[in-house]
Amino acid sequence: MCGFFGVVNLKSPLFPQDKIDIKKGTDLIKYRGPDDQKILSENNFCFGFNRLKIIDLHAENQPYYTNDKSVVMMCNGEIYNFLDLKKLLLSKGYKFKSNTDVEVILHGYLEWGEALWNKLNGIFSIAILDKRINKLFLIRDHLGVKPLHYFIKGEKIYFGSDYNSFSQIHNHKRALNLSALHSYLSFRNVIGKQTFYKEIFDVLPGTRISYDGSTVNENQFWDIPITIDQDKGINFYTNELDKLLNESVKKQIVSDVPVGAFISGGLDSSLLLSYLKNYKPDINTYISGFDVEGYDEFKYAEIVANHLGLSNPNKIHINQNDYIDSIKETIIHKGEPISVPHENAFFKMSNFMKKNISVVISGEGADEMFAGYGRIFRSPHDYYMSKKPLLGRFINYSTNNEITQKFDNPIDHFLFRYAWFSNKEKNEFLNSDITNNKYNNYTFEYIESLFKKVEHLNYYQSIYYLLGKLHLPNLLNRLDRMTMAASVEARVPFLDVNLVEFASKLPIKYKLKWKNQIYKFLSKFYNSESISEVFDTPKYILKHLAEKKLPKSIIYRKKMGFPVPLNNWSNKKFGEYAHDILISSNSKSKDIFNMSNVKKFIEKKNYDAKEDLDGKKIWMMVNFELWLQQQSF
What is the three-class DSSP state of 333? Predict the structure, then answer.
């Protein structure tokens, strides 16, 4: 709902220039909160806050002080259970100055201390300076819906909602973190707490850090559960899911400004709308699509709207020129290379929505929690079958049908299956000094730490945790950056913490279910690419629940996933644009990429058609180059 930028020095007074830096950095991200600004400073701290008004439109702007001014707090986000917490705090004698949701954080911290974080249900990034103990706390919500970054320079710690703010720190020149490029090419984003900027770090989801002027202490207060329930039967789980989804939607539509929703014509957004219509029957819905056959879902969105009795969806059409023209502006607001091909389409749609709404309901999280990416969640099948003494010798279970791939462990298999750029391709496209392992260590150490956490689970079970830690943060980052760039707050009912805990403990047969025993047997002779959505049903329990709410033509249609026609465009104007950007003598990435191999790749006649994968690789390199052009490295 907002954006903030601050600096604290717990050992010495700030200089006047420090406060000027915070003002400039706060001004630079006014798009996150255009309705009000407040700069609060004392001897050793300066907090800047931009407000997007959502709840209690006339309330005083943050930062908030305690009465004795011993604690100061800022929060970007929404606390969905604030009324319950407020009732408890009022009974204990605390007095509130506003009807905002975030004021409960200030009083809740005084009452419960650090036990507060697990009492909060919402999306939040929080900064609390406790002058009583001379400590700064930075806290990020359970799944990382809201961003939070920090940078330590000497005695000072800077923190904020947006990478762009950090560019305003005097006497600091940001530097490229080359390790992040390896992560980006594999995972479409920078995983873990590293970022594209040396020495600027992310606070990880479900984590609080404290700073005492000398050291950073990190504590994970919540994580995605890694235990599986004993089976209680499909009826029990369906009823529980129905109740939790309804409760989540009901909490997340609380707002004093207009609320809208995405409508893709897919299962996730449609199921949310089946609950939303009970509370907001006149809700505005929004969808975007591309002017290429097979790359829009407008007709399915209309089916859903008609079935639920909603008004016609608001549509925005995007063509190749629109897409290219918006890339640079999208990167500016992102503060790093774009991570998902439709991110700039999201940006254009967010600006389109802002004419009518300031809050939008989105379906993020359903795919990761309930096995929406059928081929990825089924991919452990390939690993296990390749180990079979007979079948593994005679059947190629690799999804690369030209080569029989063998893997020693699930980590290697996962990286092969998930990465867009293989290690071989990175060696081809990157200059040799960049492919040196010293730039790769953090990424793989982080992945190994995740696998170690789920080593008691089998590969099938552990992949849900892995996608929640590696893939989901990327989509949430995209959602927050692109909606907030247009001053729209996105909310994600599938990621209510209670619902996530339920889904994570759910036996996986209710997420990814064989259609019957014959198909289960036949699967022994095929790989996951051939099996997915033919022999099995991804998101089975969501579809089972939806049968009473939505048309079967929507529930059981093949997943589309907001595709962008990059292969098609790479043979047309986008291909020319990519060539001009990357192969130019002025290219800032010419010492990073092997331009001879990049040129051959762009100019080849036949692109890998599977999921527009070759087009996506060209797109990623273009994004990295355009981002570099905006930097002063």
Answer: helix
Q: Can you tell me the distance from the alpha carbon of 599 to that of 211, in angstroms, rounded to the nearest whole number?
A: 47
Cα–Cα distance for residue pair 474/469, rounded to 1 Å = 9
pLDDT band at 574 (very low <50, low <70, confident <90, very high): confident
Residues 129-154 pLDDT 10s: 999 999 999 999 999 999 999 999 99
Give 458-511 as a DSSP string.
-HHHHHHHHHHHHTHHHHHHHHHHHHHTTT-EEE-GGG-HHHHHHHHHS-GGGT
pLDDT tens for 558-568 read 876 556 666 66
132 phi and psi, to 5 degrees?
Answer: -65, -35
Q: Which fold has domain 2-220?
A: Glutamine Phosphoribosylpyrophosphate, subunit 1, domain 1 (3.60.20)
Cα separation of 3 and 379, whole Å?
39
Q: What is the pLDDT of residue 614?
A: 78
Q: Give the C-alpha separation, 355 to 360, whole Å.
A: 12
> What are 358-373's pLDDT values in tens digits?
999 999 999 999 999 9
Separation of alpha carbons 49 and 39, rounded Å: 6
Q: Spell out the CATH class of 234-371+471-512+538-555.
A: alpha beta
- Amino acid letter, residue 76: N
Is-contact 302 309, C-beta < 8 A?
Answer: no
CA distance 119 to 115: 7
| CA–CA distance, 353 with 360 (Å, rounded to integer) | 9
Of 271, 254, 253, give the one whose Cα is nearest residue 370.
271
Residue where the block lists tokens 């599986």: 228
CATH 3.40.50.620-classified regions of the chain: 234-371+471-512+538-555
Is the distance from CB of 381 to CB of 391 less than 8 angstroms?
A: no
- Supply 6's token pair: 């601050």
Taking the CB of residue 13, how many other CB atoms lie within 10 A of it?
Answer: 10
Evaluate whether 460 touches 508 at the Cβ level (below 8 Å): yes
pLDDT of residue 421: 87
| Residues facing 427 on adjacent strands | none
pLDDT of residue 462: 96
- Start-to-end CA distance of the chain, whole Å, equals 31
b/e 143-153 (16+ beta carbons within 10 angstroms → b): bbbbbbbbbbe
Note whether 217 and 150 are within 8 A (CB): no
Backbone angles phi, psi at 610, to 5 degrees: -65, 110
Q: Is the pTM of this model over 0.90?
A: yes
Q: What's the rounded Cα separation, in Å, for the pair 451 and 470?
A: 11
Q: Write out the residue limits of the CATH 3.60.20.10 domain(s) in the chain.
A: 2-220
Which residues lie across from 220 on neighbouring strands? Answer: 207
What are the φ/ψ torsions at residue 379 (nearest 5 degrees)?
Answer: -60, -25
pLDDT digits (tens, 9 = 90+) for 228-270: 999 999 999 999 999 999 999 999 999 999 999 999 999 999 9
List Cβ neighbours of 166 (8 Å cut-off, separation of 6 or more): 25, 149, 151, 158, 160, 172, 174, 197, 200
Contacts of 154 (CB under 8 A, 6+ apart): none
